[in-house]
Each structure stands twice: as C-alpha cells, then as structure tokens.
Amino acid sequence: MWDKxxxxxxxxxPSAIRKYFAVPSDVVTLGIGEPDFTSPxxxxxxxxxxxxRGNTHYTANAGIFELRQAISDKLDELYGVKYDPESEIIxxxxxSEALYLAAATILNPGDEMIVVxxxxxxxxxxxxxxxxxxxxxxxxxxxxxxxxxxxxxxxITPKTRGILLGFPNNxxxxxxSREKLQQVADLAAKHDLAVISDEIYERxxxxxxxxxxASLNGARERTFIVGGFSKSYAxxxxxxxxxxxxxxxxxxLYKIHQYLIMSAPTIAQEIGIVAMRECEPDVERMRQExxxxxxxxxxxxxxxxxxxxxxxxxxxxxxxIAETGLDxxxxxxxxxxxCKVAVIPGCGFGQCGEGHVRTSYAVKYENIEEALNRISDFxxxxxx
Length: 384
Ligand code: PLP
Fold this sequence. Notes:
There is one protein chain. The protein is an alpha/beta fold. It has two domains: 7-38 and 281-383, Aspartate Aminotransferase, domain 1; 41-279, 3-Layer(aba) Sandwich (Aspartate Aminotransferase, domain 2), CATH 3.40.640. The protein contains twelve helices and twelve strands. It has helices at 7-11, 41-52, 65-79, 94-106, 122-129, 149-155, 178-190, 250-260, 266-278, 280-304, 328-339, 365-383, and strands spanning 28-29, 89-92, 112-117, 133-138, 160-166, 194-198, 223-228, 241-244, 316-317, 341-342, 344-345, 357-360. Strand 3 (112-117), helix 5 (122-129) and strand 4 (133-138) form a beta-alpha-beta unit. Helix 2 crosses helix 9. The chain is globular. The termini are far apart. Residues 33, 94-96, 120, 166, 170, 198, 200, 228, 230, 236, 241 line the site of pyridoxal-5'-phosphate.
C-alpha cells in the first residue's frame, strides 16, 4: 500500500466540528453555518435562463467582467472603496478559495500569520496549506470580542508576514470598531505586514456600522478584502466569492487561481450579477428575519443563565458555558446525546473559544424556541 503522503497533509487536522453537522432528524440543530433560506427566486429563474442560453462554458479566469464591475460598484456604493474590475478583483470559488489565494500569495514556508481568534475554522488551515504558521491572537469576552491591538503587536515577530481577521465574526457575532480596525491598519503599516480581511458577513449587521478594511487610512495597498455571496444572498451551494486587492498584488493571486481553478462556476457568476444588481430587498428581508431570531436567542440564552454577548453581525451567538462546569466539547456532546440539540464546541474556533459554544440562528424561529426549551432543561439538570 502506497502511503507516503506529504507532511503538509499529515499535519492538517480534520475539522473538529463536522460531526455536529450530520445529525439525526429528531435533533434540533443550531449547528449549521449557512442560511436556512433558499436562494432568492429571482436568482433561480436567472440560472434557468442562463442555462437555456447555453452558458455552460468557462469564463475569463478572473471572472465575468460584468460581475467584477458589479462587485466594484457595490464596494464603492457601500464604503467608497474603489477597485478596478479589470485588474484588482478575482472572482473565486467561495470566500474559501479567496482566503487560500491570499495566504499562499503572502507566505513563504515557515512564515507566521497572525490569526485573530475565535475564528472561522478554515483560517488556520488556509495558512497551513500555504506552508505558513498560524499564530492565534484572541479577542476576549471582557472586550466584547473586539480587537486586542496590543496583543496583536505583542505577537509580531521577524517572521510575521500578515494579519488575518474576520468581522463581522464567526463565531462571536462581534463587529470590530472603526477605532480598533484603524489601529490594526496602523500596526500593519508600522511593521510592514499584509492584512487579509474576511468580510463575508458584511451585509448581516444589526444597528452598527461595518467598516471595510481597505477604507481605513493607509490600509488599501497592503489589504486583501475577501467577500462572498454565500451568506448575504443565501447562495452557499453556488460557490461564489471574490478577493480584491491592489494592482501590484492581484496578478500573484491570479496565477494560483488560474492554475488551480481556471474560473469560478459560470452559472453562479451569471446569477451573482443579478444578486448584486437586483437582490437588495432579499438581503434586507433575510437580515430582518435574522435580527428577529437574534433577539430571541440572545434573550433566551441569557435567561437560562448562559451569559451571551449580544452579537451585532453574522448569524451566531456564542454563549459562555464554563460556569456549568463542563468544557465546550462535553457540553456539546451531552446536549446532543441527552437533549437532542446540536451546537458547536467553542474550542473548534481557536483555543480561546473554549468555555463557549456556537449557536447559529440561521434556523427557523420555532426551532430556536424548541432548542432553547431543551437547553434550559439541560442546564437545570446540570445544576441538580
Ligand atoms: N469566511 C467565514 C467567516 C465563514 O463563516 C465562511 C463559511 O462559513 C466562509 C468564509 C466560507 O464561505 P464560502 O461559502 O464563500 O466559501
């Protein structure tokens, strides 16, 4: 049997949270990280039309120009940041590919990347796949999960090449403040670091401002903005995202994308244009429903006695469960086993996620109500 696999893949740990996704039908799941909504009708109709027109071929490597133009227009309209659709935007297979392209472009083997945690499970893996070393820097509950700029500076070494951060945040729901983000931008300039800013949840915010990292003073020339369609437009299965960056760096990402992927799925790109140009009402409809569920879950968890920071973005709440005396894995395993509710152990999102579990409110309102009843019974039982 041939088994000489690379050290790179041997070292890569399988995602610790997958087992909480495939659960039996009697389980109420707060585990999933994707919208429960189907993509807007308009997009499905546009996909049919596009297929009927025979759009089954590759596109330009960087993506259909009209889509890049739509992305450029949207970023300008929302944040006043200007990216040239010709030379500064690549359409990717989800934000996932964009994260890897940026990491692989920045890192040499053994270089360090500061990864702000808790974070999406793929960040550390993207760095490792690019032969880099992820260095976790936590955001703390006592700071409302905002950036700890001093801790980031303390983690910088001669090997540090960049900072990878994602706000609105999965799993905490925190939205970083403009002030702290500017301080990170200043730090990156001072130490000559790149920044990868994953802004995939940018449109799912509740009563606060989302700050695009490239809009900060002095940040644009060293920043990669990672974005996508999965969350805002309920398009996870279409696999569509993008990366924007300065003219002098995008050709480097483009080389990897060109050889690895060729071009993102054509039909997804076609409907991405429609999403950006015509689906604002759908984005708002879904955002409002998430907001309603957000209030239910945060109030519910707090009244059960699991202290929950009020998330301002994305669709997750991250209750503190350490006072139950259980670690996050035991809490999630026992809750699943004994009360048939799926949540994700916080330790899956970086070491500092321990003591929390991630609950998603991208599930139906009634399911959240039922899950809260069951969690309440579980916590009451633990106290006895
Ligand atoms: N970034 C964050 C913070 C996410 O939570 C996810 C998916 O859960 C992704 C990126 C990946 O998104 P995509 O479906 O666009 O690959």
